[in-house]
Write a structure and sequence with these properties.
transport; 23 strands; alpha/beta; binds adenosine-5'-triphosphate; disordered N terminus; Rossmann fold; about 525 residues; 17 helices; globular
Length: about 525
């Protein structure tokens, strides 16, 4: 439960208060890209301000500029009405600005309190004042509902709780503005609800929040005002959230209305392509399912259901205790990821930055990393011209932005990084595509592009197994849905008009199988 403290202040009316942070006429360039062009952003005291935009619109660049990490070429920053110039992130902390990223920066083997004061230890003379650290940590942790977790190592906490510790750290530093950059993308449904409640509670306590997200439903639940960026520019003025519909926000982000969130496909579903029987490991038990040519099998389950481990086992990267795999009717064993790729099974992992890409390598290198043999000439040497040409072609088809094959993967926005991972697997000519959370951190328009890519694959006769935590995505894209709960398969249902969200959620929380 969230707790109010003595520091709780009167709730404040958003939009009518004095500006806390003003970013005026900000321009930031990178080689070949104008990431921000004359952008204005005013965050007022006591408001939850949404900063939205497509992948690559410039949101992260703006955050890094606010935090003193990026040095803009033009514009100025004002804090409580006074011009400020930040040289490092510590200057931002000093002012009272904190940032919570989706990828958390804490150290798992250290305790909660040690993590909270890492690099900012409370001192008594030359020594760390452990007692004082613990006292202050307790107050801050109570404000985020974690008062009982003082002595626990970070690695024992779930993702949602780790994020709350980061927020407690910000609260302890008396942050007046907390920037949250896609904070919900790795959280379970209940953790998301908890975080959104906490945002509202912190806001009631007088803290302003700048909230960056691609999930418009969550944004609308908590936001007071919204600023949309498009191609590095303001897409219109800041608006009151209650005056603007989700469709209008999408139009500001994308520049047009989206016809269909989940594009239709007309595919003749064919014979069985892949089947597994009685797969068992330490994280799942007795999993059996099949997927046919041209079919998309959605896999739904809450955090800890064993979905990801099951998919990794099929791909040869998670130890299988027993079970059989059949590809096009033939029984086979997958010994490793390389073996899976050779057999036509590929896995797009949920964390693209750690497992999907080599971030310091460019797009040509990443896109062709598993298919280098295709580019060997008759002397056995890699034909780099051919490699670049193919990557350019696929990049164009996938609407990769910017279409710069020599640019490092780390310098692309999240959604465009995801397209590079998809490109890598498209080039492999696989038959069975396992997509684990394919649209995580991807904007609304790019989501539709990814769904279209999936539909194309299905039309060409591939099979897709799509793991997703977004129930709407599961219902919008799947032919059949398999639901898992605590390592067990609780049902496989045809996704027809008889199926609804409630039924899937019942299965995902251990309910009974209705249909097979
Ligand atoms: N360090 C960098 N070097 C080169 N280009 C960069 C760098 N950082 C960002 N960019 C480019 O600046 C543009 C804006 O990127 P930014 O990461 O700010 O987008 P974003 O709105 O945060 O996207 P996403 O929602 O995908 O995170 C993109 O074209 C990106 O490729």
């Amino acid at each position: 439960m969230l707790q109010k403290t003595q520091e709780t202040t009167e709730s404040v009316e958003p939009g009518s208060n004095a500006p806390l942070l003003e970013m005026r006429d900000i321009t930031k360039m990178f080689p070949g890209v104008v990431a921000l062009s004359h952008v204005n952003l005013v965050v007022r005291q006591g408001e939850i301000h949404l900063l939205l935009g497509e992948n690559g619109a410039g949101k992260s660049t703006m955050i890094k500029t606010i935090m003193g990490i990026n040095k803009p070429e033009g514009g100025e920053m004002l804090w409580m009405g006074k011009p400020v110039k930040l040289n490092t992130i510590h200057d931002a902390y000093q002012l009272g600005i904190a940032v919570i990223y989706q990828e958390l920066s804490n150290i798992p083997c250290l305790g909660v309190v040690e993590n909270m004061y890492l690099g900012n230890e409370k001192k008594k003379g030359p020594f760390i004042d452990w007692k004082e650290q613990k006292r202050c940590a307790k107050i801050a942790l109570e404000r985020v509902g974690l008062g009982n977790l003082l002595d626990v190592p970070m690695e024992n906490l779930g993702m949602g709780q780790r994020q709350l510790v980061e927020i407690a750290r910000a609260v302890d530093r008396n942050a007046k503005l907390i920037i949250m950059d896609e904070p919900t993308s790795s959280l379970s449904r209940s953790e998301i609800d908890n975080l959104l409640d906490l945002m509202l509670e912190l806001n009631r306590q007088g803290i302003s929040i700048l909230f960056i997200t691609h999930k418009l439903d969550e944004a609308k639940k908590v936001g007071h005002v919204v600023t949309v960026l498009k191609d590095g520019k303001n897409s219109g003025p800041t608006l009151n959230v209650e005056d603007v519909s989700e469709d209008q926000i999408i139009k500001l982000m994308v520049g047009r209305e989206l016809d269909e969130k989940y594009p239709r496909r007309s595919v003749q579903i064919g014979e069985e392509m892949f089947r597994c029987e009685n797969l068992c490991s330490d994280k799942f038990d007795n999993i059996s399912f099949h997927v046919r040519k041209g079919e998309l099998l959605g896999v739904f389950g809450l955090v800890g259901a064993g979905r990801t481990e099951t998919m990794r086992a099929i791909f040869g990267t998670y130890p299988l205790v027993e079970g059989d795999i059949f590809i096009e009717g033939r029984k086979g064993k997958v010994k490793s990821a390389r073996d899976a790729i050779d057999k036509g099974i590929v896995l797009l992992t949920e964390n693209r930055k750690e497992e999907g890409l080599v971030l310091i390598h460019n797009i040509v290198e990443n896109g062709t990393i598993v298919t280098m043999n295709q580019f060997k000439n008759k002397f056995g040497l890699i034909d780099n011209k051919k490699r670049t040409a193919i990557v350019k072609k696929y990049g164009k088809d996938l609407n990769l932005r910017p279409l710069q094959p020599e640019k490092r993967a780390m310098d692309f926005s999240g959604g465009n990084q995801q397209k590079v991972v998809i490109m890598k697997w498209l080039l492999s000519g696989a038959k069975v595509f396992i997509f684990d959370e394919p649209t995580k951190g991807v904007d609304v328009a790019a989501k539709v592009e990814i769904y279209n890519i999936m539909n194309n694959l299905l039309e060409q006769g591939a099979s897709i197994i799509m793991v997703s935590s977004e129930i709407q995505e599961i219902l919008g894209m799947s032919d059949r849905i398999m639901v898992m709960y605590e390592g067990l398969e609780t049902g496989i249902v045809n996704n027809d008009e008889t199926v609804d969200q409630e039924q899937i959620l019942t299965l995902a929380t251990g309910g009974k199988v209705n249909e097979r």
